[in-house]
Amino acid sequence: MQLMEKIPINIWDDYDDEVSEIETYAYVEEPEMDYDLRRKHLEEFSVLFLEAIKGSSIEIKLVDYDSRTRYPNLDEMFHHTRPELRIKNMNHDQREALVQHFQTIESNFDVYSES
Q1: What distance in Å separates the CA atoms of residue 16 and residue 6, rounded to the nearest whole number?
Q2: Which residue intervals of the chain are DSSP H helices?
Q3: Fewest beta carbons less than 10 Å away: which of 1, 78, 86, 94?
């Protein structure tokens, strides 16, 4: 029986956590994977994420990101779309603790944080 590979989830770490509106995101770092499948995996991951942040001020929202919205003048070859889990009110210490938590629990996800 072949073991299923873990789904790579990157929680973006390049953000300023000293501003009033802290925001970052997580995404499935497998661009060749079907969009709908990446979205499904993020939905599954969001359940674990919500459980891990219960009682904190951290908020999450699953969105469909299109780089054209933020960078409309960028050359078309650099545009991309992907499902993202938007994360608000999470400082770097909380992010590092969450990544460590996800690395120690049994799940289908390989969670890490890099930019």
Answers
A1: 29
A2: 35-53, 67-70, 92-104
A3: 1
| Contact (Cβ atoms closer than 8 angstroms) between residue 23 and residue 87 | yes
How far is 37 from 83, CA to CA, in rounded Å? 10
In what order do the strands lie in the sheet containing 109-112?
A: 59-66, 81-88, 23-28, 7-11, 109-112
What pLDDT, in 10s, does the model give residues 4-63? Answer: 589 999 999 888 877 778 889 999 999 899 999 999 999 999 999 999 999 999 999 999
Angle between helices 92-104 and 35-53 (to 10 degrees): 100
Report whether 115 contacts 12 (CB < 8 A): yes
